[in-house]
Each structure stands twice: as C-alpha cells, then as structure tokens.
Design goal:
There is one protein chain. By secondary structure, the protein is mainly alpha-helical. The protein has one domain. It has four helices and no strands. The longest helix is centred in the first third of the chain and has 30 residues. InterPro entries: MFS_trans_sf.
Amino acid sequence: SRLLVFVALAAVPFAGSAWTATLLLAVVGLATDLGTPAVWAFGQDVGGRFVGSAVGWANMWGNFGVAVSPAFFGWIVGASTSGTGWSVAFQACAAVNLLAAVAALGVNASKPLVPGHQTYSGNRGS
C-alpha cells in the first residue's frame, strides 16, 4: 500500500484540477488505511508479551511526525521562492513513502523483538 501512496502523492502536483487532486488524496487515505491492519499485526507478531511496548514505540513516532509535520511543511512552502512549495511538500511525502516501502522489504514478522520469546503467531526466536 505504501507504493500506491507514493504514486498518488507524487502525482498530486501534476493534477490538472482540484477534483483530480482530491481523488488522488482519497487514494492516499484509502491505501494508508488498507495497510494499517498489517502494521498492527506486525507489532503483535514481533512483540510477543511486549506487544504494548512495541506498538507504543511505533505509535509514539507516528505522533511525533504528526506534531512536527505542520511546521516542517510550512517551512518547505515558505522557503520556496519559485512558488513550487506545495509541489515540493507533496514530493517529500511521496519520497518518505517510497523509503517506507523499500524499508518494509526487510521486515521479518517471524523474528521476535526478544530472542527466545514466543510470539503470538507461535514463532520462537533463536
């Protein structure tokens, strides 16, 4: 779903109308929500008896991003002298989602956070 978010966000600056941009942003929302159950399941799989800590850690970073992003994107838009600030902001979001998609390729839900502890999926780390 991150790749779909990447494509939709990268296309927003090139949308020919407000309706097209709205449709692309709706795709971003849908694709993000479709991937959410996998994120929570991953936290439960690797967390084992520490699932609260694992999911809480991930949630903390998400909340940090939500808190910082308005100032960050305001800075990007304000720093643009050529009037392309919002295009750069959407491209930055697209790039972050592409990075997340590539990073997800290395994720192994069968490996618990604490070696030797059994996960909820029944896997035991070495």
